[in-house]
Records
---
Amino acid sequence: MPKPDKNDIERLSRGESTRGKIGNRGVGHRLTQKERILFEAAKRQGFLKIPVAGIRKNVINIYRLWCQASEREFITR
């Protein structure tokens, strides 16, 4: 499987089709507005901070893919 592109990850997080044909219908990727805030903060900070109340796995899936695309280490707290 080819390395995902950052632009494809952004499109996938918005529920749009990707050029690299990444993603899976069985795995959630589309982010809500609150999840998007967490994702954008994770990109800036270098780690995904998971709230106590928990979040859907969509944010974790998208952040993991984004880390692969940017060749960063996948860190959650």
---
Amino acid sequence: MKLLIDMNLSPRWVEVLAHAGIEALHWSQVGSRNAPDTAIMHYANQNKLCVLTHDLDFGAILAASGAETPSVIQIRADDVSPEALSGALLKTIRQHRQSLEQGALLTLDPLRARVRILPLG
């Protein structure tokens, strides 16, 4: 599984994820800083990437489109830095890897993770 990190998260996530054996790239490496979320979703879908974001719009896009991919991991926390969330995120990715590879919306907050299989209905 490869991750595409949205602009609203630090590029430092790339290194943290790589250190854990997860391939990732930051949107700033491949796209325009002001690209619409739909462009990011399209790129992720075309390149078989899972989107990591702090933006709730990605879940809305999945719901409105009825899409089965790409998977999206939404972080819902005040502190979205790798220092604050890397442990919880890595644990959650390991636990839900199969769902993410098949198509899922995973929401992670400091207390729990929720997974919804795609398409959202």
---
Amino acid sequence: METLLIEIRNPKGINLLRDLEEMDIIKILKQEEAPKPPQKLSELLRGSISAEEAEKFNEYIQESRKEWERNF
């Protein structure tokens, strides 16, 4: 099953959709039943580590980069 968001541009379109629902081909979901778009990963992870941990991690990354940039 696949859920789609549809913009109806012509009032006749809603009648067609209702007919399809009556034939048990589709199911019309109310606005509150419609699935929410997935949350961005950055929003999901925001605040998952403290500012202190983030600073330590950033320092570690900077030191790691310096090691790669050294001439051998």
---
Amino acid sequence: MYFEIISEIVNIEILAVGGNIRDIMRLRRQYGPGRWRKLKGIADVRLESGRICRAELHWYEAHGIGRRKMKIKRLLD
């Protein structure tokens, strides 16, 4: 699903860090070593259809590398 984030991400929580991330080997191989964290937060997004809604987002992030593999986990409205 393609989407665009149109607001600031709020209520950011850390779900896992380093070795507790299932895909840690793939992240390190694809993007490089770093202090990888899996996070979740809530933001307004514009879906491919043009509809705007609030969604729970999950992504991976490492210092110096940035956010990667962002996905919508569920729509909130």
